[in-house]
Amino acid sequence: MGKRILKLITRFVGNKCVVFDGSRVYYWNIPMIILPLDALSFLQKELELRFGKKARDTIFYLGKLQGLNGSNILIQKFNFIPDVKDMSFFLEQTEFVGVGKLSTVLDDLKNSHMVFSVVSPNAKSYIANFGKINHPICDYVRGLYAGGIEAIANVAVKNDESLIAIETKCVAKGDDVCIIEIRKSSKWKKSEVNHDYPLDIPAIAEARKLETLAKLVRVYAKPFKDPDTLLNSFLKSKNLKRPFTFGEEGNIDLIGADSLITPIDIIVLLYHIFENKAKDIFYDTGIFLGKSSTARLVSKYSLDTGRADIQRMLFDQIGLFGLGKIELVRSNTEKYEYTFYLYNSPGDHYKDLLGTSKNIKADYLVAGILSGILEGIYQKKFETIEQNCVVSGSTYCIFSSKKIGK
Ligand SMILES: [Zn+2]
Hints:
The chain has about 400 residues and is an alpha+beta fold. About 45% of the residues lie in helices and about 20% in strands. The longest helix has 25 residues, at about 55-75.
């Protein structure tokens, strides 16, 4: 294990700042989700196919919001004054969420000008699953850097200008590394930046107001149910203290898949911004995730998917990703019909952030994951519908799944 990772773990994990309870991962008491990067690449690819540049700008912006908030939390919570000469604090933080081990190419924080190189796990996953693409794809990652550096530059050198990060080389394009350059927005030529900031997307401006630091560190209600799950106990029996490990390359391994850790609010905001126009994309991403993750678990532990207890354990993957506590309440295996309750769902966070709304069901991602897990179990296609969602007033979310086709 690298020296830097050790430092990081002592500083944060050693202080019990990471808690995993079977249905959530908390960093500094903030509920996070942990999602394999291949599924996130799938989501990004589909959003970009449908929304083009708006998708890339949105993902950059949400990354930036998270970078700003993440750094500010540490700065405020621990009274941490960043040292201009030692940026290891910032460098380590990026490894802590799984976006790669950074090297500094240019360090001119005084002028808020930084260049980093990274072999981004995001880009590696993209190229491995979907092949080479003709433009850089690490939009979330460059957003994260821009936000992190902006928060630091604000405290350390009193910079009050918005920073923009551009990725000039990317592994997903076939380059050997990703190069990300951060400068004050006024220092970029318009043609280089290719978008203005703040972005001209009303939902983003709104998100910026909603996802404030105070909101992010709000205190959460205790979960309805004991969050411990069959899957969590199973993994513990395999001597896994928590299901993810920090890798050498600044990656986070979740049972064999490079994964990203991000506040659940970010996914809620992403859904909110595209809302009705992207329900199917969130659902399809869920199917991709449920199927691929089930396949990894089944093959890693040679699981017998015909057993009812194993099936229940596989549904607990919802909690493994930090998406809540799932409970199978009814099943008819002959007819391939299932009913689930979900406590502490992404919908709960949607409600918390955006309020209730009669007509909104928020958990298309979870519905897709349930279909994907069932497909992984039976090798047949399933359809899952969220019958009731906490966003529209239910106490918990209710999903029903059934087989479709042959
Ligand atoms: Zn890249």
